[in-house]
Design brief:
Shape: rod-shaped
Order of helices and strands: HEEEEEEEEEEEEEEEEHEE
Distance between the termini: 180 Å
Helix content: 10-25%
Largest sheet: 5 strands, mixed
Number of strands: 18
Number of helices: 2
Strand content: 35-45%
Structural class: mainly beta
Length: about 290
């Protein structure tokens, strides 16, 4: 006897309630994955690399691929970007069909001024409300960093009513330096100049040399001074150059000559005074009596 649709629905609900019919759960959709691309496989296996690793000298460009696997029954649109310097991906958005692996090429460029050592970054993939970071490590090879800063060819000369200080700042190391300078001049009665030059380059590359000039309009005109130029930079030893400066070249010789003449006159006067007999004393003959006045 055939059941009406209402009775059939009622019987089905009763059977489900009594557990007479098994319930088949709906399988959850498998999420997409992102990992370093393997060679010739559908998806990265357990033995594949878990992160990217590159090693090379400054200026090297590395190329690799990121594998995006979509095991689901529908296509996925994923975003891909780089977190770190020198990372460039071929496409910022990738559509991955169902049951498909898409490989995204990318490059990593080591900066030409990079110092030897290690750094880390990541490829960042997003989609379906989740985000995955694939770690990326870069080791820069090369000689160890040797920062070396120098101050050379310091000259101090007259200029109009003042003076001018000229010198050269040199980077003799193998790293880029950010120099800082200080100028000081000490005279006979203390410090007469303290100055921080403002025309110093923000960065001085290895082997770089720059000539600098510092005008000193209120330099002393009679005092003999010693000028010091000190250069510092992070990681580098302090470099200092010194130079004496006498504004009038004839001042010291003239003063020295005057002192000699004055000293000679005093010495001659002392000798004359010593040769004179004391007043009130008279001598007669060779062995005569001495008579006091």
């Amino acid at each position: 006897m055939a059941l009406s649709p209402r009775r059939a629905a009622t019987a089905l609900c009763a059977a489900l309630a009594l557990g007479l019919l098994p319930l088949t759960p709906v399988a959850a959709e498998e999420p997409w994955t992102a990992a370093p691309a393997p060679a010739g496989k559908e998806r990265p296996g357990p033995g594949e690399r878990a992160e990217f690793y590159f090693e090379g000298a400054p200026g090297t460009v590395f190329e690799d691929r990121l594998a995006l696997v979509n095991p689901g029954d529908r296509p996925r649109r994923l975003t891909v970007g780089g977190d770190g310097p020198g990372i460039a991906v071929a496409a910022p958005r990738v559509d991955v069909p169902a049951h498909t692996r898409a490989d995204v090429p990318f490059t990593v460029t080591v900066p030409s001024a990079a110092r030897p050592g290690g750094s880390t970054g990541a490829l960042v993939v997003g989609g379906d409300g989740r985000q995955v970071r694939v770690r990326l490590a870069v080791r820069v090879t090369g000689p160890p960093a040797l920062p070396a800063l120098g101050v050379e060819h310091l000259r101090v000369g007259r200029s109009g009513g003042g003076a001018v200080i000229r010198y050269a700042l040199v980077n003799r190391g193998n790293t880029v330096l950010a120099p800082h300078l200080a100028i000081r001049a000490d005279g006979l009665f203390g410090t007469v100049l303290r100055r921080t030059p403002t025309d110093v380059p923000a960065e001085l590359p290895p082997g770089g040399r720059v000539r600098l000039t510092e005008w000193w309009p209120d330099a002393p005109r009679l005092d003999s001074v010693r000028v010091h130029v000190t250069a510092t930079a992070p990681g580098a030893a302090r470099a200092t150059a010194s130079r004496s400066y006498t504004p009038l070249v004839w001042v010291l010789p003239t003063l020295g000559g005057a002192a000699l003449v004055l000293g000679g006159g005093v010495l001659l006067l002392v000798r004359r005074v010593r040769r004179r007999p004391r007043p009130g004393i008279r001598t007669e003959g060779t062995a005569g009596a001495v008579e006091a006045a």
